[in-house]
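User: Show me sequence and structure for the first protein, then do the same for the second.

Assistant: Starting with the first protein.
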Amino acid sequence: MSPKATNSIDAHGRRKASHLSTPIGLSQADVAKSLGVTFQQIQKYEAGINRVGAGRLFQLAVLYGMPIENFFPQGRVAADAGGSLCQER
């Protein structure tokens, strides 16, 4: 896998982020403004065209009022993510 290729953890976080804005009444433009990016960038994040960096992921967690861990799968992860099991604390 190339360093910039997406993996199953990226996909999980992307799905999680794209499903959170609507229930709390935020449009892509609202999310973009809060993060300091364009709404086109949000569309690229949600479509999986661009990966979400750690700093942006943290900003999303703050915006949605949730722990950053919620963007990551719990338990087993696919081999493309570089591991076979996430340890719960």
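Switching to the second protein now.
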Amino acid sequence: MVPLSARANGTKATILVVDDSPAMLRYLRLLLEIDSYQVETASNGADALLCIRQGCSPAVVLLDVQMPGMDGLKTLRRLMKLQPDLNVIMCSGVDDPAKIRRATLLGAKAYLTKPVQHLYLSAAVERCLDSIRMEPAETSSHGRVITLPPRAGYDSN
């Protein structure tokens, strides 16, 4: 399955995956490469910041919340200072409403709960890429974050 964004313009978006687990990095890389994305990886927040400072220009950053040293929220804050328009998807094994709220306030576009399912990952990445293609007035979703899978007790009405 090739995402619409890759088919539409013939180029592959670059996704930076930041996770302290080598197994999770491999898994997420595999899922994203199946969808025809270019994938860069970093094993911690400091490496992710260094990657950005050295010229890596990802369309989307997939960022683990719980990492030793600089956790995902601190990394998110610093990434957004470097590139305020960066599309960041947070990823965590814990469905913590307080962390989701904090990530949203810091600028995260989506929050995925581990174990990450391919369908949800693809949907979150496509949502971020769609926001890049839209005019700024169409993407006034600041303060709203997509949480996948939907949280228990979620009512869409």
